[in-house]
Amino acid sequence: MKPASVNKMSTVPTETLDELAARVVDLTGRITSYLTAQGLPQPSFARDGGLEEYPEAPQVKGPRMRLIETLWDMLHLAMGGKDYVFMNSIVPHNDAMILSVLDRFDFWSAVPLSGSASYADVAARTQLPETLVRRILRHAMTMRLFAQAGQSSDGPSSGVDAAQDGKSTGSP
C-alpha cells in the first residue's frame, strides 16, 4: 500500500470572494427563512433581543456549519495567506487569554447587564489596576462582549447577550 502524500494545495478551496459571498447569502437565507417560519427571533447583537441558541434542526444545523466554514474560507481569502497565518498565530491566543481573565476576575459581575460601570468601578470590583482593566475591556469590546458606554445596544460595538450564563454585556 502506497503511503498517503500531502500537497499544500490539495484541499484548498478554489472559490473566489464573490463565489463565497454568494454562498454566504444563500446559506444565511436558508437559516433565517427557517427561523422566521418557526417564529424564532433572528440572530442579533442587540442586548435585549435576538436568538439565544440555534435550534438543532437539520434545516439549521447543516447550513449553519457550512456557513461557518464558508466564512472562514472567506476570511482567509480576504486576509491573504501571509496575514492569515500571522493573525491566526496571535488573535486566538489573545482572545482566549481575555476570556480567561474575564472569568478569573469576574468582570461579568462588575458591569451590570442593563447598565454601565466606570473603569474605576470595574477596577475596584476586580481588584486590578485601572490601566489593565481598560486594556482588557477594550479587547473584550472587539470581541463584542462589552460595549463602550453611550453606544447604542445595536450599534457596531454592542455586546453579545450572555445573560443566560450570568455574564454581563453592559457598558464600562
Give helix % range.
40-55%
Q: Please mark out the parts with pLDDT under 50 across 5 or more consecutive residues, or reply none.
A: 152-166
Total number of helices: 6
Number of domains: 2
- What distance separates the N and C termini? 62 Å
Strand % is under 5%
Q: Can you count the beta strands?
A: 0
* Class of secondary structure makeup: mainly alpha
Mean pLDDT over all positions: 81
List keywords for this structure.
single chain, about 170 residues, mainly alpha, 2 domains, about 0% strand, extended, WH_DNA-bd_sf
Q: Could you characterize the architecture of this molecule?
A:
The chain is mainly alpha-helical. It is 53% helix and 0% strand. The chain contains six helices and no strands. Mean pLDDT is 81; it is low at 152-166.
Structure described in brief:
The protein folds into two domains: about 15-80; about 90-165, no CATH class.
Question: How are the SSEs placed, and which strands pair?
Answer:
Layout: H1 17-37, H2 58-79, H3 81-104, H4 107-110, H5 119-126, H6 130-142
